[in-house]
């Protein structure tokens, strides 16, 4: 395929990449005041689009941001942007910020939210991570308590996760494990965590302060359908170290086996049989599911 000119959706218009700009007075930029979603396209189908849009609207409601499009209009805008980019396999970034205001905090001074949709090629973790499992470490920075800044909201305020990522970089790791202020294991910097213990699958409950990942929800459903027992239960690092298997889930990463955490080998240090079974089920499911983007392939040709 020839080099494509990517198109970015900005407030209702599809513009070229270098024309895609927002105001320096946008409170998304000044304060991280806004929300976002990351969504995948597999073979021309947008994976769990409705679920991602529903979560976007839930985040919007929680921060009292009125999305200037209905869910149906937003769905149409996402489809249009995917079609304009002609990529059958892609990563979509959907952003709604509070919009341009003045230098004060007050969101009432922002006249109109900014809506941005970016469609890019995906970059997954290195293939070796999927084959051999990745190494995790628990980090110093804690995930905020739900009554401070609820991690259930996918807001533009990702500095907590970025601080975790900085710790990851310092240790030469691609992902790290985060605890809440009580010491419960909650999630990774951009992925949810699952353990396998004596044939059962365990993941932290949403109330400990996590993003209720769309991939997490899909994996719970696929595992349950396959006859596995899945429980949402608080876990400590002790439980992680002593799990038979562990894996992470996220839109960009999909499902990644975990081989080690804080220097402890998990299970036998190889991706376990239940993890491998679920990864296979997820891959098959991801390719068949999703909203087909009409005429996407016609544009590619
Ligand atoms: N927890 C957190 C904190 C996240 O940011 C997930 C879990 C997984 O959720 P989904 O719905 O994707 O299964 C996320 C995912 C990226 C990237 O490029 C991913 C996220 C945010 C920013 C970047 O990998 N969110």
User: In the residues, how many domains can be counted?
Assistant: 2
Largest sheet: 7 strands, antiparallel
CATH topology of the largest domain: D-amino Acid Aminotransferase, Chain A, domain 2
- CATH first level of the largest domain: Alpha Beta
Continuous helix count: 10
| Broad shape | globular
Reading the helices and strands in chain order gives EEHEEHHEEHEHHEEEEHEHEEEHEH
If you compute it from the alpha carbons, what radius of gyration comes out, rounded to the nearest whole angstrom? 20 Å
Proportion of helical residues: 25-40%
Notes on the structure:
This protein is an alpha+beta fold and 301 residues long. The chain has two domains: 7-122, D-amino Acid Aminotransferase, Chain A, domain 1 (2-Layer Sandwich), CATH 3.30.470; 127-287, D-amino Acid Aminotransferase, Chain A, domain 2 (Alpha-Beta Barrel), CATH 3.20.10.10. Helices cover 32% and strands 25% of the residues. It has helices spanning 27-31, 49-62, 71-85, 127-132, 146-149, 159-171, 214-225, 237-241, 273-288, 296-300, and strands at residues 7-10, 13-16, 34-42, 45-46, 90-97, 114-120, 134-136, 177-179, 185-188, 192-197, 200-203, 230-232, 245-250, 254-261, 264-265, 291-292. The protein has a seven-stranded antiparallel beta sheet with strand order 2-1-6-5-3-4-16. The structure holds 3-[O-phosphonopyridoxyl]--amino-benzoic acid (PXG). Residues 38, 161, 187, 190-192, 211, 213-216, 249-252 line the site of 3-[O-phosphonopyridoxyl]--amino-benzoic acid.
């Amino acid at each position: 395929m020839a080099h494509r000119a990517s198109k970015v959706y900005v407030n209702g218009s599809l513009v070229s990449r270098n024309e895609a700009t927002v105001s320096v007075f946008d409170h998304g930029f000044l304060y991280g005041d806004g929300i976002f979603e990351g969504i995948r396209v597999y073979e021309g189908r947008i994976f769990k689009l409705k679920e991602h849009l529903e979560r976007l609207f839930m985040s919007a409601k929680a921060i009292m941001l009125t999305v200037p499009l209905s869910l149906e209009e937003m769905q149409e805008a996402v489809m249009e942007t995917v079609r304009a980019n002609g990529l059958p396999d892609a990563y979509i970034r959907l952003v709604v910020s509070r919009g341009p205001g003045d230098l004060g905090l007050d969101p009432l001074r922002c006249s109109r939210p900014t809506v941005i949709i970016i469609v890019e090629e995906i970059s997954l973790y290195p293939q070796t991570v999927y084959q051999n499992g990745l190494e995790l470490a628990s980090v110093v920075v804690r995930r905020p308590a739900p009554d401070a800044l609820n991690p259930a909201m996918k807001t533009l305020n990702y500095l907590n996760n970025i601080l975790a990522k900085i710790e990851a970089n310092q240790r030469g790791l691609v992902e790290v494990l985060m605890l809440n202020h009580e010491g419960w294991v909650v999630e990774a910097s951009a992925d949810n965590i699952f353990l396998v213990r004596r044939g059962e699958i365990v993941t932290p409950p949403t109330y400990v302060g996590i993003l209720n990942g769309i991939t997490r929800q899909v994996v719970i459903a696929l595992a349950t359908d396959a006859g596995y027992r899945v429980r949402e239960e608080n876990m400590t690092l002790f439980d992680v170290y002593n799990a038979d298997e562990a894996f992470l889930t996220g839109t960009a990463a999909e499902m990644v086996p975990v081989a080690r955490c804080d220097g402890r080998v998990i299970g036998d240090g190889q991706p376990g049989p239940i993890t491998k079974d679920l990864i296979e089920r997820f891959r098959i499911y991801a390719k068949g599911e999703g909203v087909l983007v009409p005429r996407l392939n016609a544009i590619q040709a």
